[in-house]
Amino acid sequence: MNLPKAGWMWGVPIMAVVVFAYAALYVGAARARVSTLDERMERLDQLAGIAQRYNRQVEASPASMGMALPAMDAVMEQWMDRASAQLSESSPRRLSSGVQLREVELRLRDASVQNVVQLLNQVYESENPWVLTSADLSAPRSGTFVSGTLTLRGLESAAEGGT
Amino acid sequence: MPDFTAAYAVSPLSEPCLLARAHRRRAQIQVSVEAGVSASPEDRESAFASARLDVEQGNGLWAAFQPATSALLRRIRTPMHARNKAEEVLPSLLDVQLPFPLDECVYRVVSWTRDPSGTWSALVAAVRHQDLERSLEACSAEVSMQPHLLIHEALVYESARECGLPLREQGGHLILVHQPSYLLGVWFLNGQIQGAVHLRTSDDAPPVQRLMDRIHRQFGKPPSTWAWSWVGDGEIPPELPGAADALGESAEQVFCEDPASFPVRCLARFALEPRALALNFRVDEYMHPALRDRSSRREKRMQVLLLAASLLWIFLSLGWMQLYRQAESDRRHQITEQAMRLAPERRIQPGMEILTVERSLENSAEDRAAVSQLSEGGILPELRIVLEAAKAVDAKVSGLQFSSPQVEIQGRAQRLADVQNFEARIESSGFTVEPEIRQEEESVRFVFRGVGG
Fold this sequence. Notes:
The structure holds two protein chains of two kinds. By secondary structure, chain A is of the alpha+beta class. Chain A is built from three helices and five strands, in the order H-H-E-E-E-H-E-E. In chain A, strands 1, 2, 3, 4 and 5 form a five-stranded antiparallel beta sheet that branches. The radius of gyration of chain A is 33 Å and the shape is rod-shaped. Chain B is elongated. In chain B, 35% of the residues are buried. The two termini of chain B are 91 Å apart. Chain B has helices at 41-56, 83-97, 129-143, 208-219, 240-247, 262-271, 275-278, 289-342, 353-363, 365-375, 380-392, 416-428, and strands at 6-10, 19-25, 28-35, 60-66, 71-77, 105-114, 120-128, 149-152, 172-179, 182-189, 192-200, 226-232, 251-253, 396-403, 406-413, 432-439, 444-451. Chain B is α+β, with helices and mostly antiparallel strands. In chain B, strands 3-2-1-4-8 form a five-stranded mixed beta sheet. A five-stranded mixed beta sheet of chain B has the order 11-10-9-12-13, with helices on one face. Chain B has twelve helices and 17 strands. At the A-B interface, helix 1, helix 3, strand 4 and strand 5 of A face helix 8, helix 9, helix 10, helix 11 and strand 14 of B. Strand 4 (131-138) of chain A pairs antiparallel with strand 14 of chain B.
């Protein structure tokens, strides 16, 4: 094979080898960086999954369609007398997506078990958006009367304000 | 010579001058005699004219012998066991062993062989500058052409087999070439050329016996099976068979067709072999201008190819780099966009995307837990499970603390079995509780602490 004898002719091939070596080093490092970025992307996707689930839950709630929570004292008064139950509400907490979280606390003192059960049935079975989130009850006197605290929470449109 | 499709071989010293043509068609090379011994002067002139035209058009080349009488074919033994070392010392050995200074001759290495001792030896063909110039002048004067290839006469018989002389594959083979003024003997062993000897002839018969003696001295006694062939012009001398038998036992004569034209046919055939260029005496300042042009063109083509390949390689390398640079940039962009979607309220610093988003989600963890609890229906289903289980086993629940997922259930039952039954029922519904049971006089008091279903 007749290879070029002129020395300068080898300059370009040598440059090609140098460029290739540089490219190989660059690509090696870039591969590692891309791999790290892929891991970050994967972690962000996981975090996005958490945020999406939250958003879906909020969007699926009637509150996101502008629905307001019914007044809890009206529900409560239907089943309890004022002497055995006392209702208090903390300030609503505004969430993202234009909804707010309301929380009411129902303090019971020697309330009739039957009434409490009926109240809870009302909350559970009807389409009432109030949800029982914690209960701390005691029935010291042979299960006829109960004392303690029930906490109920509900979502409503932030535009509706505290009802 | 792969660049040419035809080769024309002439023997300017023969009377009349012979012309043979080798022509390559696909992978086959065909050899023909264009102007033989019996050709008329008109036919001869026409054949030469046709050959000149073919050569001028760049299709063919001229090839001529360097007569054995004015060239040298010698085996040079080196003391080296490594081939590259042997190649390095060869010029020095040649300078000592050749009968003329090395810088006054052109030499070509015909072959390298390893001797039984493990050292390398080279078969070298050499010609003095003045003899080479004389041959070129003879070609120019006799047939008005400048040969592209000038090959040592003995070497062209490597093509003997292709030109109709079945060389012995095993054993020895002596080709005796009768030229107008000398007799040449070319010795082959196992199909490989070993060397050549020649003797000038006078007006008398060829000096067959003396040549045989010289062959015996130079190459030793022939192996048990060997053959000889007579080519060139002239009849076989009557004493030759006897001399051959005397040289070695069981000598066999092998014939070939048209022995007179055999040397030029071999030369024409050999001229189309790639090996011919390596054995051409016309090198450096003696190189034929057409070959020099071709060599120069080939070198330029190689330069352009090398340049183009290098540039292509550079562009591919840069493209490869750019590909990864783009991939990296795309991913960074995607990560920033995703982070900005997940934490729109925060400023995203490069490299801090995950930390920023995690902090943002941590801040809203309480909201998410609350919404999640609401969407799952709160604790009422669990409360119902506990109360129904208590009713089923007739246990009295006196205290309930549900704050998802923590749960504490207090109560009493008539028997220990009822308590265990109660525990089993709620655990089958997904509760995991640690029981604390105390036996009292009329009942069993229990406290279950754990997590809800």
